[in-house]
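Task card 7
Instruction: Convert sequence to structure tokens.
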Amino acid sequence: MSTIRTTNGLSGFTKRSESEYDPFGAGHSSTSISAGLGMAVGRDIKGKKNNVIAVIGDGAITGGMAYEAMNHAGFLDSNMIIILNDNQQVSLPTQYNNRNQDPVGALSSALARLQSNRPLRELREVAKGITKQLPQPIQVATSKIDEYARGMISGSGSTLFEELGLYYIGPVDGHNLDDLVTVLNDVRSADTVGPVLVHVITEKGRGYLPAETAQDKMHGVVKFDPRTGVQQKSVPAKAGSYT
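Output:
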């Protein structure tokens, strides 16, 4: 790891020639959803049933490539799971950023479990299949009813993702492993169609005191002392100025 982002060192992004565990190559952020969607489409062509999971942070999801991918996933209605790790470090249109989010407590936990509940989601799929056989005006009306009903139990940021065609679940406390594992197991096992987004709220640097007390300084770091968190001062560039 000491060579990362240095000449001939480890890449700062996924690189297939470096590791068999790097599933695709990238040179910038915001790529996981589009890569995952491509894998999901390939899986469907091959007739396989494996899960495709894309993890993206609150910073990367602000990139246009991520929104394009979510819109494409909603249009194709491909089965895939998107996990949004929101540690409130970047301004998001979900109202959970900058520590002004709604409390992720007992009520949010119960609603997230309800949204991910396997029987409920499978019953919803059956209902969607039935309404597709009905006249267009009735399909539109039932779609609106479903949207409003889900809006009553979803987080206030859910509308954005629902409009893109994703089934939103959250917010989920990422530090409550019992809730998180329950939600992920339900999402994985449900026999439903379409992309699902699980909105997970986390605290950047949780458990590491220097990061908890100075999140701004520990957001993007240079070399630092792991015991104290003190960062080394950057060495001035040797190249002359051309201005």
